[in-house]
Amino acid sequence: MKSVFHVLRNEEHYKPIVEPCGFRKNIPILKYKEHEEFFYTVTSMRQYSNASLITFNIDWDVMSDLYVKSTKTKHFELYLGEAYHCRMDSGGGSSGHLSINYVISPALPDDISGMNFVFREFNSPLKDTSTGFEIVFQIE
Fold first, then answer.
1. Beta strands in 49-115 (DSSP E)
2. CATH code, 2-138
């Protein structure tokens, strides 16, 4: 029984992985939010025939008092509603910058007006415990 419930708890890990293919175009989004001394941005969306790719950026001043807090790795998940599956594809960073790519399937429409991009912060990549903090970008 323990094994069955473990698999059910991690069902998301067993979904087929969609790899973007058939690049179509870039669509500008150009949205930002500031919280404390962090600067969060979503600049554009890459459209593919089978998926969309969003890049989420976090920037901060490495000389600020929050530098120690910011060195703790942040784990954000993208939520766009039940109709879309969002997964972190890749990411990386350096002093004062973190960039994370998310693959969304099925592909988002070219006109994303009225959508909300919700980035929820978790304490670990396993999404066990939410910090309760989220960044919401409202697309007009």
1. 52-60, 75-79, 85-94, 97-105
2. 2.60.40
